User: What shape does this take?
Amino acid sequence: IDQYAVFGNPISHSKSPIIHSLFAEQLKQRLEYTANLSDVDRFKQDIQHFFTEGGKGTNVTLPFKEMAWKMAEHLSEAAQLAGAANTLWMQDNILHADNTDGVGLVNDLLNNCGATLKGRHLLVLGAGGAVRGVIKPLLDSGCASIVIANRTFAKAKHLADMFSKLAEPGVIVAACEFSEISPTSHVDIVINGTSASIQGEVPPVPEGVVSAHTLCYDMMYSNTQTPFCRWARSQGAERVFDGLGMLVEQAAESFSIWRGVKPDTAPVIELLRQSLS
Ligand code: ATR
Assistant: This one.
């Protein structure tokens, strides 16, 4: 039976095994998917061991995405630009890596949240690894502009400089401080890619930026409403989503890379949502 796994630390709460089991059941694929605790000192060895034992593919989650990226012998374009990898597999004895987080976010926005990205103005909060992984796929979806706001401005500026070079002519990628986000600027979609929720915090977006028509998306999810989702609703936003759909969509992309077939994500998201509440 084909073996797959996710490596992370912590890992015990990972939903990947259940998600991939549901995909396998749906598509009648025979495979086993396990969650494995690793460690920075051991990660490389753990991955090498998994593949020498005949393992077919792995997901990689925090804090190993950059290590996986460094260790891969072949990187997809998405992984190259993300500077991090979440999907590994062996092909012709070469360790391949991809990053499916960005396409997972875009697919969730388009297919599950009913969002339009083409021609839209996006505000992205945060400039860490999670954000770096999603900017290019967002640009590829045809949005008109992306403003990256971050507590540490230099990090936002660095990402904006890097990705504006890759944007189509006329498409703007800019950086700013949270306090500089103007309530009068037109924002269609706000995506929270900060890890502020972990500390129960919300990035300080000025009042008036979000209103009823603004679609608000938190890349994090939790079994209760995330602080960002709660804040977005308090600002009057009517369409507010957390990152559970993104989690399932990025998994579906990994599954499709490994198995050549694409799962139907909607019933899996639905099931997970029920199990959370
Ligand atoms: P990840 O891999 O989750 O992106 P990261 O690379 O450490 O993790 O980035 C975390 C992001 O969340 C950063 O943009 C960070 O802002 P700084 O670059 O200024 O550190 C942001 N962040 C974390 N806690 C925050 C908070 N309480 N308020 C606002 N932004 C926060």
Summary: The radius of gyration is 19 Å. Residues 126-131, 150-152, 155, 194-196, 199, 201, 203 surround 2'-monophosphoadenosine-5'-diphosphate (CB under 6 Å). The chain has a mean pLDDT of 96. The chain has two domains: 2-99, 102-244.
